[in-house]
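call fold target=ABC transporter domain-containing protein
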Amino acid sequence: MEDSSTEPTQEEVSEKDHDAFTVVIGSKRSVLEGEGTSDANVKDVAVESFSVSVRGKVLLKNATVKISHGKKYGLVGSNGTGKSTLLKLLAWRKIPVPKNIDLLYVEQEVVADEKTALQVVVSAKEELVKLREEAEALQNSDGDCGEQLVELYERLQVLGSDAAEAQASKILAGLGFTKEMQVRATESFSGGWRMRISLARALFVQPSLLLLDEPTNHLDLRAVLWLEEYLCLWKKTLVVVSHDRDFLNTVCTDVIQLHEQKLHLYHGNYDKFETGYEQRRKEMNKKFEIYEKQVKAAKRSGVRAQQEKVKDKAKFAAKKEASKRKAVDEDGPAPEAPKKDKGYSVEFHFPEPTELTPPLLQLLEVSFCYPDRPDFKLSDVDVGIDMGTRVAIVGPNGAGKSTLLNLLAGDLVPTEGEVSRSQKLRIGRYSQHFVDLLTMGETPVEYLLRLHPNPHLEGSAINSQEAVRAKLGKFGLPGDNHITPIVNLSGGQKARVVFASISMSKPHILLLDEPTNHLDMQSIDALADALDEFSGGVVLVSHDSRLISRVCEDEEKSQIWVVEDGTVSFFDGTFEEYKEELQIQIREEVDE
């Protein structure tokens, strides 16, 4: 499961790029959009032996997929393997989806215009809007339209017209929109909030097949927990790509793994998948070892026929096993000899910081407001960070979590109060903003050598470039990408470059703002391990509850800062207790 750059970035692949893809099903090339069975009773998506390539790069080879009606699938795999591409191909029906199955793929933010958020969500039900318009036109006409109106009202009742606004409002509220926000024009919202409106539209429409790609990336913790509860009650089919382990564990009934150009189905949530995959990997590697020994023995014999016999025997065994799973038929792909599954591991590491006398960093009675934002203010903030401190900053989006991090980092100057910093304090800062500011024309090696001209690897006398490449390798960036211009890297690969740079700066305190957005599951676990062993201070803003739980595991050193209504307060309890309180509130809302 190694991280590669085989999958085109989202910017490179859009709906205009249909022709960039080649989808072959059996021996037949799929070129017709909407191709698939027209049987009105078919509710499952089932495709055997299909291959996908984009601009000559193979993403899937002789793969088989079955998406059963009413199940909720997590689509997983390391960065760059083709998960988002697979969702797009399903949405475009280049992978055949029965025509009677209505599907919706949440990919782009809604168009920014004068319509309110609530109007945009309700308008997603096109038939409902059309019938309402017809009914209004008949009401305003001079003719006798009584029978037509009765018929229209009956159809509107079936579509739930009376409760449409209330249902849409409830979904928007769950995703963090206040009553005031729901009646604001969409053009007044940022891209992240407009993505939430797109998600709300999809939940409101309730398509037979819902496709979601990283739906939690633009959500705060409370909205993520609400979405979990909402999707747990989802009665139709769901396929979701997500790097949030807790989200997948809560929502999914099955997991589809995209691995080594194949799709593997596992029943159960993500934890069960992980156990099943590790068992399967061990079995595969055991078969490979036996096969490899037999091949070597045949080669030593020098008899060509013996060598071919070993290969044929392995292929026969593979075909027999596949037939048991009904994965291939007589006309299906040729069976393959056993292969070794090397797995995929990433290791993040932040060096041991030098000791500094406390306090390292304090905000003393600090207040802050933006000159052009009279509606926003943080008041009387009194917080501190020392070596070993673990802080999770929680609260709704827009409340000031990132502003608080910027005050701690020194990127913003308080309008009132005092900031106290140790003179020798080094801060490691991560945010999506920092990823965007990478020098796109440089390679990762050039970028890091410019920022850190004299790197060294502990216990080694290798030169600067080798030290930088060793560091990048540790953070999971493949060797080929070390000398690739940063502009050509995926989001996850760029994030690794930023983390490598932070590590090389030898920080005393780490300020991390949504560090998981571009990382795969293995990298998030590696980050959690690195933060666990780091003896400096850590301040974290994240919607990933598992990462927060890992960072704030030690109750004595951990603090929960709640940013809400212009203040920063301390939650008296553990993060798990804070999460449980939120979940109780959310369940009451969802059950209303």
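return ok
Residues 281-344 form one domain. The first strand starts at residue 21 and ends at 25.
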